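Example S7 (C-alpha cells).
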C-alpha cells in the first residue's frame, strides 16, 4: 500500500478475499516495517549505547481518498481492521462488512470517529457483532451522513435498538432488517 498509486484509488472491492487478515490493514496505518522505522543516528556516540531512533508510526500514517470499500465475506477481520480503516480512510462513503463475524460491538466507535462521511453501511449477517449499543453509536456518530443501513440477520438487535437508531440518525432513509428476532 505504500505505492503512490494507492493514494488515488477511490473504490476497492475485496469481496470473498477470505485470506485477508488484520495485519494487511495495519500496513495501511504504518506503511513501513519495524526495520524501516528504526534508522541509525548520524552522529552516534562512541559509548556503545543503542544508536538508533524510532520513527513514530503515527507520523508515518497515511490517508487514502478511498470512498467505497467492499469487505463482504472477509470473515477473519476484527476490530483492528476497522481501526486501521478508520484511521486512513476519512472520505469513506460506502462500506460493506457483510458476513464479517469477528468484530466486537466496539467496532462502531472506531468507525464513526474515523469515517464521518459514511453514507452506506452493510452489516448484514454479522452475527452477534451488531447490538443495540452499536446502533446507538452509529446513529449518533453518523447522524447527518448515514443514509442506508443493512442489518439483515443481525441477531442481537431489538426494537429498542432500531428506535434509538431512528431517533438519532437523521439522514437515514433506508434500513434493511429482515430476519431479525426483535424482542
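Recovered sequence:
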Amino acid at each position: 500500500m505504500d505505492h503512490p498509486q494507492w493514494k488515488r484509488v477511490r473504490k476497492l472491492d475485496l469481496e470473498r478475499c477470505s485470506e485477508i487478515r488484520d495485519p494487511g490493514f495495519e500496513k495501511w496505518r504504518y506503511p513501513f516495517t519495524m526495520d524501516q522505522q528504526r534508522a541509525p543516528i548520524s552522529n552516534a556516540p562512541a559509548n556503545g549505547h543503542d544508536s538508533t531512533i524510532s520513527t513514530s508510526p503515527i507520523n508515518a500514517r497515511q490517508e487514502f481518498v478511498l470512498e467505497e470499500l467492499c469487505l463482504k465475506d472477509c470473515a477473519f477481520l476484527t476490530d483492528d481492521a476497522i481501526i486501521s480503516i478508520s484511521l486512513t480512510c476519512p472520505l469513506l462513503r460506502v462500506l460493506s462488512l457483510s458476513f464479517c463475524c469477528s468484530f466486537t460491538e466496539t467496532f462502531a466507535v472506531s468507525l464513526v470517529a474515523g469515517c464521518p462521511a459514511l453514507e452506506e453501511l452493510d452489516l448484514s449477517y454479522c452475527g452477534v457483532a451488531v447490538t443495540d449499543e452499536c446502533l446507538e453509536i452509529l446513529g449518533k456518530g453518523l447522524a447527518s451522513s448515514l443514509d442506508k443501513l443493512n442489518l439483515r440477520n443481525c441477531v442481537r438487535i431489538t426494537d429498542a435498538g432500531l428506535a434509538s437508531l431512528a431517533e438519532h440518525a437523521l439522514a437515514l432513509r433506508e434500513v434493511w432488517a429482515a430476519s431479525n428476532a426483535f424482542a
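Notes on this example. Residues 32-60 have pLDDT under 50 and may be disordered.
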